[in-house]
Each structure stands twice: as C-alpha cells, then as structure tokens.
Amino acid sequence: MAAGTGAAFLLWLACEVVAAQGPTSATRNEITHLLAHLEHSGCEFERNGSWHGGKKAAAHLQKKYAYLLNKELVPTADAFIDRAASKSSVSGKPYRVRCADQRIVESRSWFTSELASWRKSHR
C-alpha cells in the first residue's frame, strides 16, 4: 500500500468512527436547547393543520429526532431543523409557529433564528 493510500484510508476510517459516534456534544446541546425553547416558549406549533402547545410539539419533535439519530441523519442542529423540525414527514406540509402578538412563521425560520441566537451567546 502506498503511503498516500494508507493516509487516505486512515482519514476515511477516522471519519467513519466519528460518524458512528453520532453528533458532537455541542450539537446535542444545541438540539436539546431548541426542543426546550419550543416547550417553554408559550408558542403554539402547527402540524398538519392542527395547533399544539409547546410541550406536545417538543415531544413530537423529540421522537422524530430519536428516529433520525438512529439513522445517523442529524449530524448538526441545522440538519435537525431541516430534517425534523421544518415539515411533516407524512404530508410534506411546513410546520408553523404562532406566538402571542407576533405573526405566524414557518418553524424553519423560527428555529434557525433561535439557533443563531444560542450560538451567538455561547461562543
């Protein structure tokens, strides 16, 4: 095996090991924060035409997260937002968030904004 090939193999192997370990602790903290933020926000979450309180909505997204985590499909909080927290995997309809005295927004933008705030305050 040539030296370059061996190094490439070791790099590939290291990437595979990291991927098998799942998301980093920073990513897990971000996702945990997003779920807690929804649960305690006082906002409502629309899923397939029905509005749900934050606690029920967070529980639903936690189940989706666990499923995707098992499939190794949430390597980042951004992937969590994209794959679990933005739209129904059944109907394909976007999720929406309704907070008091604010306009209804798609959950993708609501979660993305909160994630940006979280990252800014945790640098």
List keywords for this structure.
alpha+beta, 5 helices, globular
Description:
- By secondary structure, this protein is of the alpha+beta class.
- It has one domain.
- Helices cover 59% and strands 11% of the residues.
- It has 5 helices and 4 strands.
- Strands 2-1-3-4 form a 4-stranded antiparallel β-sheet.
- Helix 2 (25-40) packs antiparallel against helix 3 (54-70).
- The longest helix has 18 residues, at 3-20.
- It is globular.
- It starts with a helix and ends with a helix.
- 21% of the residues are buried.
- The model is unreliable at 7-19 (pLDDT under 50).
Secondary-structure topology with pairs:
Blueprint: H1 3-20, H2 25-40, E1 44-47, E2 50-53, H3 54-70, H4 77-83, E3 96-98, E4 105-106, H5 107-121
Helix pairs in contact: 2-3, 2-5, 4-5
Radius of gyration: 18 Å
Beta fraction: 5-15%
Order of helices and strands: HHEEHHEEH
- Mean pLDDT metric: 88
Structural class: alpha+beta
Helix segment count? Answer: 5
The poorly predicted ranges are 7-19
Q: Globular, elongated, flat, extended or rod-shaped: what is the shape?
A: globular
State the share of residues found in helices, binned by percent: 55-70%
Number of strands: 4
Spatial gap, N to C terminus? 43 Å
Lateral strand order in the biggest sheet: 2-1-3-4
> Main beta sheet, described?
4 strands, antiparallel
Count of discrete structural domains: 1
